[in-house]
Amino acid sequence: MRFQDIAVDMKAIVWVSLVFTALAGADEAADRSAIERVIRVLSDRQIVSSKKQVSTLFTLDADSDLDRLTELNARWLQLSSEPWSEMTTPRFAIHSIRFVTPDVALVNAANAQYGSTIPVRRIPVLFVMKKEGTDWRIASLRVLVDLANLP
How many domains does the chain have? Predict the structure, then answer.
């Protein structure tokens, strides 16, 4: 084999790998957006606390601390609905999304409430997301603190 043939083969390998890297990055961006959308919908629905609507966001065999989180949110929602409270309703804020495999992602987030007269209240939450077909669903939701010690 001549040097020129090897150089052409190497250029082809580099070109093909760049194309696949670009395609993988595009898929990851779309997956990140889909994961963020699921968590945003959960954040909106946890206020209403309709279990039927929320269940569509989870896998059939999901393991979840959502009930524990909902209990705490009930106290926070009560405080935020009082007149002149100047406190927001609790919402999920995503800190990071890490893909373990193309179909499984870990999402570090916090359930947070903001106010003008209180420090930010945060409850760290870990989501394990699983891709089922084209949809991302929550396979596990873990509250990472002892809720008994929170206000």
Answer: 1
The whole model's pTM is what? 0.71
Q: 106 is written with which tokens?
A: 């870990």
Structural domain of residue 114, as residue ranges?
3-149
Stretches in the chain below the pLDDT threshold 50: 8, 18-19, 21-23
Q: Check residue 65 and report its DSSP letter.
A: -
User: How do the residues of the chain divide into helix, strand and coil, expressed in percent and rounded to 5?
Assistant: 45, 35, 20
What CATH number does the domain containing 87 carry?
3.10.450.50
Provide the pLDDT for residue 128: 97
Question: What are the two backbone dihedrals, phi and then psi, of residue 60, each rounded to the nearest 5 degrees?
Answer: -65, -35
The four Cα atoms 93, 124, 140, 138 give a dihedral, to 10 degrees, of 0
How far is 77 from 67, CA to CA, in rounded Å? 15
- Tell me which residue of 53, 48, 92, 67 sits closest to 147, measured CA to CA: 67
